[in-house]
Amino acid sequence: MSIPPIGAMPSVSAASFAQPTQAVRPSVGGEADFGTSLGSAIDGLQSMQSTASELAIKAVTGDLADVHDYTIAATQASVAMELTATIRNRAVDAFNEIMRMQG
Amino acid sequence: MGTFAAIGIAGSGLDVYRKWIDAVSDNLANINTVRPSNEAAFQARYVVAQANDNQGGESGGVHVAGAAFGSAEGRLVYEPDHPLADQNGYVRYPDIDMSSQMVQLIMAQRGYQANASVIDRAKDMYSTALTIGRN
């Protein structure tokens, strides 16, 4: 059995690690503003929660085909609720941070 | 499925295993269903599972493609006192093996539990992601 000799290390160039940064342009009108996207997220959340409550009614009335359908819908609604609340809280934190800048 | 793909996929698994348990319970319920020898026996139900193709925006999962049926011939049992027995004293029992059905029951139950665990873990993971950078 022969052990191959250790070859030379390839040279490290700085450019391969650090890509040149691009200037971030604020997009005006290109993307939906925060209020709109939060609003649509809340709409989605509301439909998830109404699905969950419809399934809860079905469970009570005996029309529920699958037990896990309800628990999955309830889980999704609760995670989505947490997600929306987190996004909203972060945004409010950022806004407050900006407001403190002028003092 | 989007954000909660793992929950949706595991949910489709729950659907399939629930249907498998339904099929097994049907087989066990009818394991002593007797027919006259000139009629077809109760046919065992089998669930045919099939992976979802990823066409059309679906992100994986499984569904029940259909049901397969066991032998209609069953097995002839000599029970001359049975009210359904023919002139030779035979009745037709379904060809279902109790131990095989019990094993399938355990497999279906464990599969259901595994998919339920996936949903729990996925929910924990999403909750963990929400705590990133909280402090």
Write a short abstract of this structure.
The complex is a heterodimer of chains A (103) and B (135). Chain A has 103 residues and is mostly helical. Chain A is 64% helix and 0% strand.
Characterise this structure.
The complex is a heterodimer of chains A (103) and B (135). Chain A contains 3 helices and no strands. Chain A is mostly helical. The mean pLDDT of chain A is 80. Chain A has one domain (30-102). In chain A, helix 2 runs antiparallel to helix 3 (67-100). The radius of gyration of chain A is 26 Å and the shape is flat. With 135 residues, chain B is α+β, with helices and mostly antiparallel strands. Chain B has one domain. Chain B has helices at 5-29, 98-130; strands at residues 35-36, 45-51, 62-69, 75-78, 90-93. In chain B, strands 1-5-4 form a 3-stranded antiparallel β-sheet, with no helix packed on it. Chain B has a two-stranded antiparallel sheet with strand order 2-3. Chain B is elongated and about 85 Å long. Chains A and B meet through helix 3 of A and helix 1 and helix 2 of B.
How many angstroms separate the termini of chain B?
Answer: 30 Å
Order of helices and strands of chain A: HHH
Structural class of chain A: mainly alpha
Mean pLDDT of chain A: 80
In whole angstroms, the N-to-C terminal distance of chain A is: 74 Å
Q: Walk across the major sheet of chain B and give the strand order.
A: 1-5-4
Task: State the total count of DSSP E strands of chain B.
Answer: 5
> Which runs of chain A of at least 5 residues are low in confidence (pLDDT < 50)?
none
